[in-house]
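Quick one: SLC5A6 from Bugula neritina, structure tokens please.
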Amino acid sequence: MSVINTGIYFKWPDYLVFSLSLVLSAAIGFYYACTGGKQKTTKEYLLADRNMHWLPVAISLAVSFTSSGILIGLPAEIYTFGTIYMFTLVGRPIAAVLSAKLFIPVFKQIGSISLYQYIYKRFGRVLSIILLVEGFVLTMLFGALIIYGPALAMSGVTGLNLWIAVCSVGLIAMLYTVLGGLKAVLWTDTLQFLIMIVGCIVLLIFGTVKAGGPSEVWRVNKLSGRLDILEPTKFLSIDPRSRHTLWTQVCNAILICISAYGASPIAIQRILALKPGPINIFLCFTTVLLITFSFQIICAAIGLVAFTYYKTCDPVASGVIFSKDQIQPLFTMEIFQNLPGLSGLLMSSVFSASLSTISSAMNAGAAIILQEVIKPLKPNMSDQRATVICKMLSTLTGIVSILFVIFLRLFGNGLLSVTLALVGIATGPSVAVFTVGIIFPFVDGRCAVIGNVIATAFTTWLSFGGLINRPYVYSYPVTTAGCNITDENLLANISSPVYDPSTWNPQSHYRYNIYIVFSFNNDSLGYNIVIAFF
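--- reply ---
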């Protein structure tokens, strides 16, 4: 394991602040385990008695998909590859409208947390089983990634063993999720939202001051080319090998956000937990957009500020850190080294992002397994026994996610790109299935199965091939001119944009953010092929 080599580590006030945030999260779980109905029915445990106010539901829905991949990965992405990524903000409102108007009414009418009930009724058992297995495996992989991100950051800034940090994140999420059910998850997400937003704003303000002020941040990033969001010749490119363009980012955002807010068990579970009334759904989605916009803009700004701060001495090229994903933790430690407690606050925000996501996945995952696997085998099971089994399933999903971290250690890509590549494997085919099922009544189960298999196989091949085979790197150049480095080999390894057309390979040259678009189109193409020939 590699540790950040600055000699700057947590002090006791940092540990105190960090520990307090974790204790408060666990305390909410204990509170809801001992109050109200004490989580003895599936309605209370999985749906919070269907009586939740729209605000905590909206916050939970937003932060469940504002993971450590965003808080750690987005600053690193902007630092390394520029700001064109931010065009995802254009696609989010479109996705919110489509989710609220097209998907949510259908799934709400069914009244089940499990979206696979719709697939079963619309396309049959075979496709529902395929999507169930795909969804479970990729949810566990995604959960593992969300656990791994903050654990990596924590191990780097404290010297704590990586696997101890991994187990800590998973176990704390399991504790309050198993004890308090959805109510605990919703209110803990609200607490964690406050920690996340305060931590990010504090880092942005102090970091901007240390970097020389807003004008200096703008000047340095403009000169370096990282404000490429202002350059039409770059963001209007139609080359699919470009890491980010306007087209790929908007399409990517629409499909991922529909999957997150309109066609995911986590979203449906929260919508079903709302008090009745269409105004609650409207307020919920409006708040989700405001929160996600705010987080993405703040995290992107942190990336620009961090580059300004390290403009003459890149920490990766100089050997201070070994991964771009450690830039935000390193930046935090250096900015707050003389302000005890604030580093702990920032690490708390990263852990909170992870906890909110993994706890939501555990709770919704347990509900799906109960509905789709356990109840068909035991149709006469009592509600109280079903609740106990659901708690056991929540524990199981948490343990499996921890074990999947071992698999993720195989990949060296940034957290954000790995996150979106994994999401793309599942999102494109699943969104295509739901979209075609709702809009085109003539598509039957045979078409849906073949289309899904084609799209999933192709996207998996493309995604994992792109993560493993990386013949070239394209990023904005960095320098170590301002570092105290004497090792000439290190200086020789500073990266500049490199591209060799002779090494073209579809697996490694198409960018991670186009996988989901390919998979969506291939799934739809599969339906058309079957309809045309059969």
